[in-house]
Amino acid sequence: MGILWAYIIREILVVLFPVWAALGFLLFVLEWLAQVFNLKTTAGTALLLYLYKIPSHLQLVFPVAVLFACLAALGAMNRAREIVAAQSFGISSRKILLPVLSAVALASLPYYWVTDHLAPWGMLKHYELLDTRVKQVPSRFSQVRQEKIWYRNQEVLYNVGFFAAEKNELHNVTIYTFDDDFHVVQTITAAKATWNGNNWVLSDGSISLLDRRLETPLVEPFRTRSTRLIEDPRTLKRVEFNAETMNQSELHSAIARHRALGINTAQWEVLFHSRFTFYLISFIFVLLAFPRALRFSRVGSAAKDGVFVAGTCLAYWILFTFGANLGNAGRLNPVFSVWAPPLVFLVGVALYNRMTSTQGA
Prior knowledge:
Blueprint: H1 2-35, H2 43-51, H3 54-79, H4 82-88, H5 93-134, E1 147-153, E2 156-164, E3 169-178, E4 184-195, E5 200-209, E6 218-227, H6 248-260, H7 266-295, H8 302-328, H9 334-359
Antiparallel strand pairs: 1-2, 2-3, 3-4, 4-5, 5-6
């Protein structure tokens, strides 16, 4: 059994890795050809810009490579009657399935490295090059931080927990006012500050007077209060938050911090969980391909397999995109929106396999 396991694993991986690389490169070529003439930069910069995105393309096409590799490798074994020979020795189809799943599990190790390390690094380099070479502006990742920021405006010092630039909102704001001796004389805290076009409107906060002549500070809560102590939002430089440039650990920490500030993190949670669902759908694709590869005559079936792969991937991508869009829009729980599609697809695969087995096709 050990020899058979090693043989099946080798046959799967020998097909999977070249197909995976080829599909990733194909996406790179298609995107590069679609965008190269729209970029006002040199051909070399345009090429490098999209070369950095190849790891993210590899992340997307891994399940497709798994499906194709299982069909091709097992189909070749079936044509050579190697599957029949194994079954004649009492080795069941389920026992043949185990090394196939093991091969995909082994391939998931480099896939994890690509997803969690190489793809975020590549997207970071892509956006840096896009900013500095194509748009010719400072890199969005070399500016002031977007969270836990300290600013100074003459005699005023203020701290911002998070700056949501797209909404012109500040969260967890603390404003310190100093006297001539640089002693704090007033502290203003607010859960949120919103720019109304002329000034900032603080909400759910309090004002503390810290005059040294007072034994205890005077605290006055407020629901809303306007202030000009904070600069115009256009002058508050920030770092562009981009989840694509973060690995899973960094993204998880960022989501936790932003949720604690009351910020909607639905889109980031969708991306975080979708990376895990690509592992699951890869194994589901194995369950779909395995009985097909063993059931049909493999002579002259390359075209049928190609159509089958394309149709399967298109069906799942439509289902996944529909769920992810609902999660991004906040209409579904982000976790449910990305985990439901592979689970629904798993049920569909089980019904498909049962239906085709009862038909004897």
